[in-house]
Amino acid sequence: MKDDEWAEIIRSAKQDDEDGVWIWTCPECDEYSVEMGERFEHGEVVEYTLMCLSCGAKVVAPA
């Protein structure tokens, strides 16, 4: 897994406070199909999940 590239996507996701759908290029397969999900507890984002819809690569990071 290409940790540096995933880390950059995670940083980008955390810094972006706008609503909407954001899709990134997958570090594993180079397809433009990484989507982000957020897990909430008590109205606060506590975790981000980034998953490639093409190859299934996935990372989970705390908020």
Order of helices and strands: HEEEE
The proportion of residues in beta strands is 35-45%
Strands, total number: 4
What is the arithmetic mean of pLDDT?
Answer: 86
Alpha carbon gap, first and last residue? 21 Å
Strand order across the largest sheet: 1-2-3-4
Structural Rg: 11 Å
Name the helicity range. Answer: 10-25%
Contiguous runs where pLDDT drops below 50 for at least 5 residues? none
Largest sheet: 4 strands, antiparallel
Number of helices: 1
Provide an overview of this structure.
The protein has 63 residues and is α+β, with helices and mostly antiparallel strands. The chain is 21% helix and 38% strand. It has one helix and four strands; from the N terminus they run αββββ. A four-stranded antiparallel sheet has the order 1-2-3-4, with helices on one face. The longest helix is centred in the N-terminal third of the chain and has 13 residues. The two termini are 21 Å apart.
Brief overview:
This protein is α+β, with helices and mostly antiparallel strands and 63 residues long. It contains one helix and four strands; from the N terminus they run αββββ.
List strands and helices in order, with pairings.
Blueprint: H1 3-15, E1 23-24, E2 34-41, E3 44-52, E4 58-62
Antiparallel strand pairs: 1-2, 2-3, 3-4
Feature tags:
4-stranded antiparallel beta sheet, 38% strand, Small CPxCG-related zinc finger protein, DPH_MB_sf
